[in-house]
Amino acid sequence: MDRRVNRVEGTPSIRLALQRVTLRFGGVSALSDVSLDVRDGELLALIGPNGAGKTSILNCISGLYRPQEGRISFVATDGTRHELTRLPPHRIARLGVARTFQNIELFKHMTVLENITLGRHVHMRGGVLSGGIFWGRQRGIEIHHRREVEDVIDFLELEPYRRDAVGNLAYGIQKRVELGRALALEPEVLLLDEPLAGMNAEEKESMARFILDVHEEWGVTPLVIDHDMDVIMDISDRVIVLDFGRVIASGTPYAIRRDPAVVEAYLGEEHAEAGVVGP
Amino acid sequence: MTTLPGLLLKQAAERGDAVALREKEHGIWQPITWAEYAERTRAFSLGLRELGLEPGDRVAIIGDNRPEWIIAELAAQAAGGLSLGIYQDAVADEIAHVLRVAEARIVVAEDQEQVDKLLEVRDAFPKLEHIVFYDPRGLLGYEAPGLVAFPAVEDLGRAANERAPAAFEDGVAALDADATAILGTTSGTTSRPKLAMLSHTNLIEMAARLQQIDPMRPTDEYVSFLPLAWIGEQMMSVSTALLAGLTVNFPEETGTVRADMQEIGPHVIVAPPRIWENLVSDVQVMIEDTTWLKRRAHDWAFAIGVEWAGARFSGTRPSRGLRFRRLLADLAGLLPLRDQLGLSRVRFAYTGGAALGPDVFRFYHALGVNLKQLYGQTEVAGISVVHRDSDIRFQTVGTPLPGMEVKVAETGEILTRGPAVFGGYFRNPEATAETLREGWLHSGDAGYLDDDGHLVVIDRLDDVMLLADGTSFSPQFIENKLKFSPYVSEAVVFGGDRPHVTAVIAIDFENAGQWSEKRQIPYTTFTDLAQKQEIYELIRDHVVTVNSDVPPAARITRFLLLHKELHADDAELTRTRKVRRRYIAERFEDLIAALYGTEGSVTVDTEITYQDGRTATMNHELRIETLSDAAVEG
Question: Quick check: helix, strand or coil at residue B149?
């Protein structure tokens, strides 16, 4: 697989930066003055209690929400800098920012193959005419895309389900298909919104392994949101904690577990004295 | 007499451009020609020599069925080494046992999973110098001494080939056909697996004798999906494929075997009873779930199929009317079903490794599949006895292959002699002396030859039960009848030296679950489902049916449904999925005692080990169903 990237060791450069982002719905502030960086090659996790604003951040990055204040900039591999708050979602996707959703957003009646191929859409060239005739160059392009999709299927071990309608598959498999669609986009940054939610222990373990492999072997920089502290603390390099729309802590998993502000946000004030978050 | 690598070179010289192997990758069948097959084997073989492999050294191979598996096998043999397969789902402890006996210097492993298991035990084996892997996923960051990628070994070999182009061919020509080629692991129902030394001659003789009975052609397709560590798979994918020039197809993943079979439409299939039984269950569930019209069409066609098969089995030629009806039934219902199962082109379908119930047999013949019983063991390089096309009988396993002698000792034990009989167990003279006496292989199986020279296998000699009334009986026979129900996955029958016969039954979670869902019976886990009143009644009805089919003394009086599935990881089954009766009798001692008591239930404690090492104890109450005297005496 040619996609595997050998990362240059050294000071990690910043791939994605949120600067003083504020998002309001009417009078309610979902995000207040949030600043954070996603560094190249790190596995960053975003945690926080329900309603802390985690998904809002992903939605701002992927262009579904427009923050009222602040800037979100993305640095592509070629070094160009893009201001995401001004771009529509499909342009952001084309730049190399892919995502999955908390509640699976797949086309239930289409097959696994078709759903993942949809992820290739941003890379497809050719108009109605050349697509309609499907000869020569266009045919070669189709074969190229299918090979890329098959790489993803092979990587996520989805071979047995290739031709199955997504709606008939088990929940854990659907989650994997959604990850596959995001990977088919050949992203540089991958936003994962609760990839482990609703899974049993075995499914979680395999999903965590896929996230690690995506990170290590495909050279993708993941930003993961989840509630499963055990897994998050296990796989991430750095954790950012949100509470009521604000960043309250940032650091290594070890430091975060012992951070008084985090303990308070999770366990409440009265337990904060001796608490440690997670096992 | 030639050798296996010799046969490969012969095929490559004669039919270099024909397809030898096919592997499904990226959703497409990728062909490998005989010339490429030979080239890769040459490269890997010379590469193994570069790694330091000396004649007589052992190369162990562990992984799913892939071209690399048999390339590694033939490469090891071509370098004068011995190859041995390890079951890919073996746990670290089982792998350690085989490595300990074999003292392998090189292990060829498929992927990260296998490499992890090997690294876990390698400290105990200083002689293990290299681990060669062929699926690099997840292994990029590994830094272990001697860990090397398959293509890197091939490249070493190719470089060596540049320097000395004739080294490989000369080496193959100099091989001794009577030297040991593979160490075959025995199934180990009663003990740890032993390693049977099989020579090139043993393996090729066996294949050649089978060719005499069932000639296979170079155009025939074969799908290799059972563990290559099993002799049954070896005898097809390696010995027979090299001799007859079959194309061997490797499925994409374990989960895609069914779809891949359908795409290939193999001409030859070998599978243990387990696979044939599962297929029957699937069909039964499929028919139950289909529309009313299709079900009626199937039932009609199938009834004609049964009648036609019955006529053939009784040795009479079906009447013209029956032949006509059978033609209609075939077109309307049987052929489409065969096609669904990937059985539409099958000329030879074999079952072996354990006994297959007559009901399953009848099913396939009614469907129009030429299913034949074969009998053999690792120690005869595969098989020694097989059904002839015109002479198939439910109760027998057929007649001996040409050149093989089969007789029954006074003890009732089946003995075999002939050119395919092995040379002994590797580094185990005691077991060899016990098994091999005056050229006769002592199988440990009980059986007899009927008046027409057909061999009838009863059971393992040690398992044959003496019932309360003094008659001997095979528990396997009853178990197979129990397993014919799609809702039963495994059954173990007890009754030797006991007042009556009892059974421990494990339900088939998927099929029984589907059955419950259809009837709106809610359940959560396997344990919960197995203890449902309705499931007990469902299984009870089946037990009553089975009882009506066996002699009164062998009828099941009490049974219980187990709270878990029987599994090879828990050592309850062998890796070829045979029940390890003695182990089960020990493990479930309390349950069996309760079956011979009077209580209506028994409590069982189970210790569960989670993947992170924590343990928990759970206890379940299992109901014991007692069949009324009427049901038993019937």
Answer: strand
Q: Which tens digits make up the pLDDT trace of A193-219?
A: 999 988 888 889 889 999 998 998 888
Q: Which residues pair with A211 in a beta bridge?
A: none
Helix (H, G, I), strand (E, B) or coil at A28: strand
Residue among B497, B523, B504 nearest B572 (CA): B504
**Planar angle of CA B148, B144, A231, nearest 5 degrees:** 110
Q: Write phi, then psi, for A9 (nearest 5 degrees).
A: -75, 155
CB A154 within 8 A of CB B253: no
Burial class (CB in 10 A: 0-12, 13-18, 19+), B124: exposed
Is this complex scored with an ipTM above 0.95? no
How many A×B Cβ pairs under 8 Å?
32
Q: Which residues of B touch A157 (CB under 8 A)?
A: 253
Within chain A, residue ranges assigned H as helices are 54-61, 89-95, 112-118, 128-133, 137-155, 171-184, 201-217, 229-235, 253-257, 260-267
A154 to B25: CB separation less than 8 angstroms, yes or no: yes
Question: B301: closest CA among B262, B339, B327?
Answer: B327
Tell me if A155 and B137 make a contact (CB, 8 A cut-off). Answer: yes
User: What's the rounded Cα separation, in Å, for the pair A58 and A64?
Assistant: 9
Give pTM, 2 decimals.
0.84
Give residue A4's Cα distance to chain centre.
18
Q: From the CA of B612, how many Å to the nearest CA of chain A?
A: 11
- Most B-contacting residue of A159, A162, A169, A217 (CB-CB within 10 A), to test interface: A159
Closest residue in A to B610 (Cα–Cα)? A201
Cβ of A159 within 8 Å of Cβ of B140? The answer is no
Q: CA neighbours within 13 Å on the CB side: how many for B154? A: 15
DSSP string computed for B520-551: T----SHHHHHT-HHHHHHHHHHHHHHHTTS-
- In degrees and rounded to multiples of 5, residue B555 shows phi and psi of -75, 140
Q: Output the CA–CA distances (angstroms, integers) from residue B344 to A106, B69, B312, B362, in the order listed.
A: 37, 28, 20, 17
Interface contact flag, A213 B141, Cβ < 8 Å: no
Is the model's pLDDT at B510 over the cut of 50? yes
Please report which confidence band the pLDDT of residue A8 belongs to, taking 50, 70 and 90 as the band edges. very low
pLDDT of A102: 83
Distances in whole angstroms, Cα of residue A121 to Cα of each of A92, A103, A146, B26 = 13, 22, 12, 20
Rounded to whole angstroms, how far apart are CA atoms A3 and B536?
A: 54
Most confident stretch, B58-72, B519-533, B616-630: B58-72
Report the gap between the CA of B27 and the closest CA in chain A (Å): 7
Q: Is B578 left (phi over 0), alpha (psi -120 to 50) or beta?
A: beta
A150, A151, A217 ranked by CB distance to B140: nearest: A217
Q: How far, in Å, CA of B318 to CA of B365, rounded?
A: 14
Best residue in B112, B252, B257, B608 to probe A by mutation, most A CBs within 10 Å?
B252
Per-residue tokens: B263: 């795409």
Nearest to B224 by CA among B185, B275, B268, B259: B268
Contact A160 B253 (CB under 8 A): yes
- Closest CA of chain A from B142, distance in Å: 13
Q: Distance, in angstroms, between B439 CA and closest chain A CA?
A: 48
Residues contacting residue B586 through CB under 8 Å, at least 6 positions apart: none
Chain B residues with at least one Cβ partner in A under 8 Å: 25-27, 137-138, 140-141, 252-253, 255-256, 259, 610-611
Residue A271, pLDDT score: 55
Q: What is the pLDDT of residues B96-109, one digit of tens each?
A: 999 999 999 999 99
* Distance from C-alpha of B42 to C-alpha of B164, rounded to nearest angstrom: 12
Burial string for B192-202 (b: 16+ CB within 10 Å, else e) reads: ebbbbbbbbbb
